[in-house]
Amino acid sequence: MWGRGRGSAPTDHVGVSAAATDGARVSEREQVPVGASPWALARRRLRRNTIAMVMLCVLAVIVVACLAAPIYAHHVAHTNPFRSNLDGTTVVNGKSVPVMPLSTTGLGLGSVPIGPTWDPAHFLLGADDQGRDVAARLLYGGRNSLLIGTAAALITCFFATIVGILAGFFGGLLDGVLSRLLDVVWAFPVYLLAISLSTVLLQRSFSIGPLKLQSGSLLLPILIIGVVYIPYVARPIRGEVLSLRRREFVEAAEGLGASTWRVLWSDILRNVVTTAIVFFPLMLAIDMLTEAALSFLSIGVQPPDASWGTIILDGQGLLYTRPTVAIAPGIAIAVTVLALNVLGDGVRDALDPRAKLRVFD
Amino acid sequence: MSRAGKFVVLCSVVALVVVAAGQGSTNASHRGGTLKLYAKAAGGTLDPQVNYTLEYWQLFQATYDGLLAFKKAGGNDAFTVVPDLAQNLPTPTNGGKTWVFKLRSGIKFSNGAPLTVNDVVASLRRIFKVKSPTSGTFYAGIVGAKACLAKPATCTLKGGVIGNAKANTVTINLIAPDPEFKYRLAVPHATIVPAGSPTKDAGTKPLPGTGAYYFASYDPNKQLVMKRNPNFKEWSHAAQPDGYPDQIVESYGLTVEAQVTAVENGQADWTYENVPADRLGEIGTKYASQVHVEPLTAFWYLPMNVNLPPFNNLKARQAVNYAIDRNAAVKIFGGPNLATPSCQVLPPGFPGHQDYCPYTKSPGTKWSAPDVAKAKQLVKESGTAGQKVTVYSSDDEVNKAMAVYTQSVLNEIGYKASVKPISVNIFFTYVQNTKNKVQINVQQWYQDYPAASDFLYILFGCESFHPGSDSSINFSGFCNKPINAQMHKALKLGVTNEAAANVLWAKIDRQVTDQAPMATLFSPKHLDFVSKRVGNFTFSKQFYWLVDQSWVQ
Question: Of B311, B375, B317, B324, which Cα lies nearest the Cα of A84?
Answer without folding.
Answer: B324
